[in-house]
Design goal:
The protein is of the alpha/beta class and 283 residues long. The protein is 39% helix and 14% strand. The longest helix is centred in the first third of the chain and has 13 residues.
Length: 283
């Protein structure tokens, strides 16, 4: 309470949260910081994540600058207060602490719409895709458009990899497999795949682009096989979303990578001070 009062960290009630959820022209992120949060969220719009991870991986969890962020916590609000204290100083979003319990009411009609119309917009369930692969595997190309780290962890068998910042490599795939090739996009939860399928259909109107509902996670949860290994030919684009994390470097190169990282880190403060796009709001 003292931390919230000292820095005027904004709080909202459940009625205000409901109004924010109904405003579809503004991006809203709702994060549940409670340790027991997994599986308790009333709908898929709430994501369970520890407060420390939310701060450290902010750029991976919050994709819209100037969005609203609502933090859920137990009644003491300690995790939410500490997380809000740091996130507010990043000055990249409006941060609110939920003062009250998360409503258990069912998702709104707007929230249900994407799932309800998934099939009409090219969505395909894991069982449907599995049946298609049995009948016509040579005419189906699975293209994973998620983060490269997730592709390394798990992907559908024989899946190609594509970073969605460019669709150009798909032209080569069409040439190799023919115009009747059916492309099925996948991503960890399917949402990125849905957007890439939409973009592909806009660029190639004749393209029969589908996307895997629930993504690789749903495919795996349905008991379907996945792979970790891949051949170079499966990479339609390089892993250019990876910034050289020391966690993904082989042991033989790790010492040099750590030296480079520490050199970069020691000079970071000076570079930040010169960067006109940085607008931290320090308390």
């Amino acid at each position: 309470d003292a931390l919230i009062a000292r820095h005027a960290l904004p709080s909202i009630d459940t009625a205000s949260l409901a109004r924010m959820q109904a405003e579809l022209d503004r991006t809203l992120y709702v994060f549940d910081l409670r340790p027991q949060a997994n599986g308790e969220a009333s709908d898929q719009s709430v994501r369970a994540v520890p407060g420390g991870q939310l701060l450290m991986h902010f750029e991976q969890l919050v994709g819209t600058r100037g969005a609203r962020i609502v933090l859920l916590d137990d009644a003491h609000r300690l995790r939410a207060a500490v997380s809000s204290f740091w996130l507010t100083q990043l000055n990249q979003a409006e941060v609110f602490i939920l003062d009250g319990e998360l409503s258990s009411q069912p998702p709104s009609e707007a929230a249900l719409e994407p799932a309800r119309d998934a099939a009409a917009k090219g969505g395909i369930a894991p069982r449907e895709l599995a049946a298609m692969l049995v009948k016509q595997s040579d005419r189906i190309c699975i293209v994973d458009v998620g983060p490269s780290a997730d592709f390394e962890l798990r992907h559908l068998p024989a899946a190609f990899y594509l970073l969605p910042f460019t669709l150009d490599p798909l032209s080569q795939l069409f040439e190799q497999r023919g115009d009747d090739c059916r492309i099925v996009f996948s991503s960890p939860d399917g949402q990125g795949a849905r957007l890439v399928a939409r973009d592909a259909r806009e660029r190639w109107p004749a393209c029969n682009a589908l996307w895997l509902i629930g993504g690789t996670e749903a495919w795996h949860d349905d008991g379907r096989p996945t792979q970790q290994n891949w051949e170079p030919a499966q990479l339609l684009t390089a892993f250019e979303d990876d910034w050289g994390s020391v966690m993904r470097v082989s042991a033989t190169r790790r010492d040099q990578v750590w030296e480079d990282y520490l050199r970069w880190e020691r000079g970071l403060s000076e570079r930040v001070m010169r960067d006109q796009t940085v607008s931290f709001r320090f308390f």
